[in-house]
Amino acid sequence: MKKIHGIILIVALFAFSSCKLFRKNPDKKDAVARVYDMYLYPEDLAGVVPSGTSRPDSIAITKNFIRNWIRQKVVLKKAEENLDNEKKDVEKQLSEYRNSLITYAYEKALIEQKLDTTISPKEVEDFYNTNQANFELKDNIIRVIYLKLNKKSPKINRQKSGINRMLRKTARY
């Protein structure tokens, strides 16, 4: 059933593309789809379907691409009709965005060129010595449990297991 739909779609596409309504220039190219005065040509579909794709999948991918293209063109046309001229004028925004993208790419390339990422141990030590105040701890980072027992104490193993349990509990924090 899916094969029949796919074959019908392909036949319909070629039949409609031969119709004069779907031609931008009837002498040159046949369009696959048309929305208002915008056309989708077979060469626009090149590369849409990955090589090695099965026939049913390639038909589905092509249909989805065409549907999305149509939807996008219709929404664009309606937006242009309904938005006022001030909101449609995006040239300034495009220019600013383009400038920021170019500036970002330039700064990134410049940093990659000029940035020296090799730091010697001497430089690390010098930095530490000049910025020791930044390395002061505000809280304790270790907890010590000190217990002095006589080796001959009774139940020493019980004391050791109790300490181990306590260490396991505090290790989670």
Structural class: mainly alpha
**Total number of β-strand segments?**
2
What is the count of DSSP helices, taking H or I runs of 4+ residues? 6
Average pLDDT, all residues: 79
How much β-strand is present in the residues?
under 5%
Global morphology:
elongated
Helix share, percent: 55-70%
Radius of gyration: 36 Å
Taken in chain order, the helices and strands follow as HEEHHHHH
Lateral strand order in the biggest sheet = 1-2
Distance between the termini: 62 Å
Largest beta sheet, briefly?
Answer: 2 strands, antiparallel
Give the low-confidence spans: 5-9, 19-28
Describe the oligomeric state of these chains in a short phrase.
single chain
Q: Would you spell out the secondary-structure blueprint of this structure?
A:
Blueprint: H1 2-17, E1 33-35, E2 38-40, H2 55-82, H3 85-88, H4 91-114, H5 121-130, H6 156-171
Antiparallel strand pairs: 1-2
Helix pairs in contact: 1-2
